[in-house]
Amino acid sequence: MREREYPCEFCDTDQPQERRLVTLTMKRGGRWYIFENVPALVCPNCGHRYYDGPMLLELERMIFEEPEKAHAVEAWAFALPIAK
Ligand SMILES: [Zn+2]
Question: How far is the CA of 64 from the centre of ligand 1 (A)?
């Protein structure tokens, strides 16, 4: 992943992005997928995460081509009412 050479797009910090391993969730076909230990650059000021584009495509590929490599987890979800 190339280091970003410009400040965060979402805030005016001049602090450098931090390289971290994060947990990323995606919903595909009505099912949630959780990816752990995903490399990301994280803004230390606002927390926005920047991912490598080809890596995200690789995660999409894993969902559709290698679902047997994932293990099921139990989860509980709440959906809050949408304010009108
Ligand atoms: Zn930021």
Answer: 32
With beta carbons less than 8 A apart as the criterion, state whether 14 and 7 touch: yes
How much distance in Å is there from the Cα of 17 to the middle of ligand 1?
8
Q: What is the pLDDT of residues 13-59, one digit of tens each?
A: 999 999 999 999 999 989 999 999 999 999 999 999 999 999 999 99
Quote the pTM value.
Answer: 0.80
- Sketch the domain layout of the chain as residue ranges: 18-67
CA 11 to ligand 1 centroid distance, Å: 4
The Å distance, Cα 56 to ligand 1 centre, comes to 20
Going from the C-alpha of 70 to that of each of 15, 25, 79, the distances in angstroms are 36, 13, 25
